[in-house]
Structures are given as structure tokens and as C-alpha cells.
Amino acid sequence: MSDIEPLKPLTEYEAFKAQAKAATEAKDFEEALLLYQQALDLKPECPDALVDLGNAYSDLKHYDKANDLYHKALAIQPDSWRALHNIGNGFRRNKDYIQAIKWFKQAREASPKECFPPFNLGRCYKGLGMGEQAESYFREALSNDRTEFACYLLLSQCLYEQDKVQAALDLLLYGQVFLSKRPELEDDNHSSLGYIYFKLHQPELAIKSYQNYLNVFKEKDAVYNHSILYLGKAYLENKQYNEALSALESLFYNIDSEYKEGFYLALAKTYEALEDYPYACGYYSELARLYPDDEYYNWKAGQLCKLNKSIDLALMHFEKCIVLAPSSVSHWQDKAYCLLVQAKLPEAISFINEALITWPNERYLTERLAEAYCEAKEPDLTLAWIAKVESFGNPKTSLECMKACSYFLKNEIETAIAVCKNLVSQPNWQDECHEWDLKFLLEQLKLNGIPDFESLAQL
């Protein structure tokens, strides 16, 4: 004779609840609602039955009806932690975190060992940007239920938002064993792992995690946009530029405003890496337009415009850089370059002289001033500033070219020809000189009976 007592059959009320739970897990919320209503009909004054029916209405997004039922449950049982908690969830859903916190704290006080009141307190404080408080409540929730994967997921997010990235990874990897209990969180899990690996500069693991995410994601929501953006960034960091471009371009018409800056920057960097400078320039210019007080975006836009020979636009960006960071000599150098390319010689000379008051021994600016005077056909000033450059040591071939032009302008022909002979004896000399200077020198040599540069070697 067995000592095991036979299982008691379910009551009609328990049967309805069991069937309703199964319907909910199968996402058949209409059927679950009918079954919970039948259960409540059997126990109309039961707080749990009222909360269950409220949850069924909530699953169908009938939040007002759900809230009424939660309050009815509280009228019967004021310390019903489920009713208190679910009223708080309504406020949290509407991002009214302050009100939600009040209800969640009451639920936590009513049942201190439950996982979800402190868990949702953590979510509220996370939403308020109060990371340390959020972390504390997530840890409390986890201590109440070590098997709840949502706690590992949200706590890890809280940690990496506080730049505790390695700790976030360790925690989330530890929690993987409990993921099977919450399969609906699998996509969020892969997305979070991808982001953590990206922050740890492990692009290959980030790519793998984001690819796993794409295999299980349910809808193109904010998480999807974030994941594809960082998949593109991971490809970019891993030097897989075409893959990065493909991922990023798939977001083009769907990117959320909160991700737009990172999206444009990733595209700009990708096109730059692919040496597609017009597109790179376009995205950096758009970033500079959207964020006009960002020095970096203006500087990058200027540099890419220089590469595209869009000197007017480059000059505009470099002038903005000088306003934003007047003590950065590189911005003054860039503007000087643009003015010389545009042949705005009086403006260039005035501007560079102004810069040299602050940086009297700055070599690049000194060279550009010598160049400006040379183009303005001011030979004495050109030679004076060349001498200043030479005093820095390691003179460049281009200086010899300007020096020869200046001596021809001064009609010191023998000296000019001697300098030309020295110039052409140097390796790659033609690459170092401006085309217009070489043209001027060749004209002067011909006027003095020397047909070309090669003939100088025979003199």
C-alpha cells in the first residue's frame, strides 16, 4: 500500500486560473481574460482574483479597467503587494517615475522578500538617471530571487551606464544560465552583450552578439535601432568597412533622433575609411550644422572639405573652429592655408601676422607668411621671413624655390640662377615647389637664355 497521498483535484476556481495562466503564456490574452473573469465570478471578493483580471486587461492594453480592478483589490486588502505593485507599474509605463516609486515602495514594504517591487524601483531610478540608487535596488531584487534573469539584464545595463563595463559583462555572463526561464528577453540579452563587448573594444565578439540578436529580434524598435547602429560601429572598429556601411545604411530612414548624432558620425568615419571623401565630408558638415558649437565636427568637416578642394566651405569651418578654440594654433594654420589657396594675399598676410603675435616662433605659419609675400611679389619681405624659417633648422626645398623667385624679382640674376642650381640638385624638388613658382622660375630662366631646368646642370 503506497504512503503517497493522491493529488487533490483542482477546484473550479483553481482550474480557471490554471487555464488562464496557460492562455497568457501562449499570448492568447482574450481567452485569458474570459477565464480570469470566470474565476472572479466564483470569488468576487478575492483580491488575487481581482488583480489577475486586472493583469489580463493590462495585457490587452485596457489600462483604465486594469487600474480600477487593482484599486478594488486594495479596498478589500490594503496590503496586497500585487495590487500596489501593478498600480505603480501604470505610472512607470507613463514615465511618471516619482509616483511609481511611491507605489513600489509600498509594495516592497507589504512583501519585503518579493523580487519585483525592488526590481521596478531600480527601473524607475534608472529612468531618472540615478544610477547608484538603481543599482542598489537591482541588487536587492537579485538577492530576493537569484534565478530572475531580468535582474541580471537590467543590473548589467545599470553597471555599464556607470562605466562599470567589465563588471556588467561578468554579471550578465553569470546570469546566462537563467535566460531559459525568460526566453522573451533573449534579444535584449544579445543586444546588451553586443554593446558591452563594443565598449570593451572586442569588436569580433560584439559582432557575433549582434548577429545573434538579429536571429531572434521580434520587432524594429528602439533596441533594434541601437543594436544595428552598434553592429555598424563594431564592423567599423574591426575594419570591415563595407559591412559597416551596409548595416548603417539599413537604418537610414528609421534612425531615432536620440541616435542621430552617433549614426551620422559612424557613417562619416566609414566613408572616410573607404576614402569616399565627398560623402564623409557631407556627414561631417551635417554634424557641424546640427552641433555648431562642436569644435571636432567643424574641424573634421574643414579637413574633408580641403580634400575635396571645397576651400570656401573649409574656410568657413576653420573660422568657426577659431571662434570655438582660439588658443589652438592648428586652426589658425588651417585658415592660413585656405586663404593662400584662394589667393587672398592681403587678408592672408594680415591674418598670419596676427597669429604670429601669439606664436612668434611657429614654423608653419612663418613659412606660410613667406609664401604669401612671395606670391604678393614682395621679395625683401619674402627673403626676411625665409631667413626666419631657416633659423629653425632643417630648411625645406620649397624655401629655395621661393628664394630663387625673390632674387629674380630683385633682378639679382646670378644669385637667382645659383639658387636654382642648388634647387634642382635636391631629390624630388619639383614635388616640393608650388606649380606657379616653378612656372615663374622657368619663365625667368628662359629670359636669361636657359631653356629649361635640366640645362642648369650644365652651367
Please give the structural blueprint.
Elements (H helix, E strand, L loop, with lengths): L11 H14 L3 H14 L4 H13 L3 H14 L4 H13 L3 H14 L5 H12 L3 H14 L4 H13 L3 H10 L11 H14 L3 H14 L5 H16 L3 H9 L10 H14 L3 H14 L4 H13 L3 H14 L4 H13 L3 H14 L4 H13 L3 H12 L6 H13 L3 H12 L4 H4 L2 H13 L12
CATH topology label of the domain at 95-181 = Serine Threonine Protein Phosphatase 5, Tetratricopeptide repeat
Helicity level, as a percent range? Answer: over 70%
The profile of the biggest β sheet is: none
Shape: rod-shaped
Query: Which stretches are low in confidence, meaning pLDDT under 50 for 5 or more residues running?
Result: none
Task: Give the topology string: H per helix, E per strand.
Answer: HHHHHHHHHHHHHHHHHHHHHHHHHH
**Count of helix runs:** 26
CATH superfamily of the domain at 95-181: Tetratricopeptide repeat domain
Euclidean distance between termini CA atoms:
126 Å
Structural class: mainly alpha
CATH architecture of the domain at 95-181: Alpha Horseshoe
Mean pLDDT: 93
Give me the Rg, rounded.
36 Å
